[in-house]
Please model this.
Amino acid sequence: MHTLKARLKNFKLSGICNSLEERLEYAQEKSLAHREFLELLLEDEYNNRRDNSYKKRYSKAKLPTHKTIEDFDFVFQPSINKKTINDCLTCSFVKERKNIVFIGNPGTGKTHLSTAIGIKALAKGHKVLFTPVSEMLHNLNAAKADNTYYQKVNYYLTPDLLILDELGFKKLPGYSADDFFEIISKRYEKGSLIITTNKSFENWNEIFADHTLASAILDRIVHYSTIFTINGPSYRAKDIKKGGDKR
Model:
């Protein structure tokens, strides 16, 4: 058994290696045919690889929290169309290389919803990356100093789904608008985006110093987008009020 397990590890069949002894006992107990026994082992290997793949992709996704759609309070935010959200959760938009934009004030659940969709995309085998817009632009600008700019650009182009959080909380300097356009234009029709922002589209000129670039960015994002405008109150304000009432 030791030799057999060593060979399985050499062949990178850890799923079979981990379950071999248990499966042997089960096969003997149930008098399984060789083919049935082999099918069980292959199923163990498949499940192990699928789980390992998910764990690796989840780690690389850099999601801020593990918030699922089951945790979201649609009653508190009735302006959100739950049916349309459920359509997004199928992740067909990722296969179609389309986008989602969440517009709303801070605390209305934009990041929660984008994270929940990201988790669903991971479960369906997609590569996902979550990043605050300010962090991405800082990393791109810093990469120019050590000649790794295009390597860093590729880092943001590789995922099937790129989640850009908190666009509009700060006005971006000119060079950042150029970098943002670089990512948006190269992902256009090639990879999906989820963008959360506190600014309506007509106010995006307040985010970007270059209004021409702002129009070009907006045009590429909106072209293939499902747009959610959340008009409800802040969850965080609700929690603060509850705490105040208790006191």
